Amino acid sequence: MNLEPTHGLLTMEELQLAARNRGIPLEALRDDITPTALHYLLVHFDIPAIDPATWQLDLGGHVERSLSLSLEDLRERPRREFPVTIECAGNGRALLSPRPISQPWLNEAVSTAVWAGTPLAPLLKEAGVKPGAVDVVFTAADHGIEKGYEHDYARSLTVADATRPEVLLAYEMNGRALESQHGAPLRVVVPGWYGMAQVKWLKRIDVQSTPFDGYQQKVAYHFKKDKADPGTPVTRIRPRALLIPPGFPEFLTRTRIVEKGRVAIRGRAWSGEGAVSRVEFGVNGVWTKALLSEPVGPFAWTKWGCDWDAKPGEYVLSCLATDSAGNVQPAGQNWNYAGAGNNMAQDVRVTVR
Ligand SMILES: Nc1nc2c(c(=O)[nH]1)N[C@H]1C(S)=C(S)[C@@H](COP(=O)(O)O)O[C@H]1N2
Ligand SMILES: [Mo]
Description:
Blueprint: H1 12-20, E1 57-61, E2 67-69, H2 71-76, E3 80-87, E4 110-119, H3 120-127, E5 135-146, E6 149-158, H4 159-162, E7 168-173, E8 176-177, E9 187-189, E10 202-208, H5 215-219, E11 222-223, E12 232-233, E13 240-243, E14 248-249, E15 256-258, E16 261-270, E17 276-283, E18 286-289, E19 291-295, E20 302-310, E21 313-323, E22 348-352
Parallel strand pairs: 1-10, 15-22
Antiparallel strand pairs: 1-2, 3-4, 4-7, 5-6, 5-10, 7-8, 7-9, 11-12, 13-16, 14-15, 16-20, 17-18, 17-21, 19-20, 21-22
The ligand Nc1nc2c(c(=O)[nH]1)N[C@H]1C(S)=C(S)[C@@H](COP(=O)(O)O)O[C@H]1N2 is lined by residues 39-44, 86, 88, 140, 142, 153, 182, 195-196, 198-201.
């Protein structure tokens, strides 16, 4: 099978992935917190079967003392809880031209949930990270083959990133025990980072004195210009704004029908690189500054709004976010070989009548 980016039709393999994984219906952007049943979902391999009663987390490697913790042990430790917006690094991939062959997201692989768990930093402190440690590796219970590499899903963070106070080992989502598809019984939550860092079904944490070179760390999740390019790692979420499609849809094309007059356009914007500082709303490429609400939390999206005086005709609605670090969402495609971090602007086709 041709794995090179293509201009061709969607393949059966992409449909197979799209039917297992799912994004949010864009009208769910109305909610500050995405209901668990609507939260986007991405599972590389299969959801593993794990018995929470016998499950344990092993923490070891380049540390003074290894730890083995049950779910009870983790629940007895200090608890922190806050909303986090998570977006898949592949969000926007299917809008690229040529289109990299993988999970074919349009714009919908983003959600905000309230995650509760225990911070990782005190656990690492208890284990005693030895001098010379570089990476903290998170290994999961799911297993598969990707591009010929057989592995347990695993990702790492540098010791500095892993010990940030907001990094959680989460056992609850939206006030309930984690559901199996979202990583039960325990997952990593790394606020501000793209989804691949949020390791589900965590079984082991290893501190290493050498850089981690697992497939999902070293090969996948890089911005590459072509197959041979080693590229640069995908880390924090780039700024993006989305709008809730106004009016009502035509079933097949999803074109919107809107009655003329004042239309309250609402949406969400987020960035993992800073706070959202500006959102612009576009009508056929003419931009107006939108009004921003307070973010739902320091690591969660911001609601925005703009009133539109809609006159009969055909329109393309769009929006663009800027963050406090000065990153501006591009209007055109942000192409790379794996189709990661394509935060190009959304297009919403509207007929005003
Ligand atoms: N163990 C494991 N963790 C994983 C994945 C996976 O396939 N296996 N997918 C990652 C990716 S790419 C994303 S985008 C997020 C999705 O989290 P969610 O399904 O809870 O929304 O989980 C991440 N953690
Ligand atoms: Mo992802």
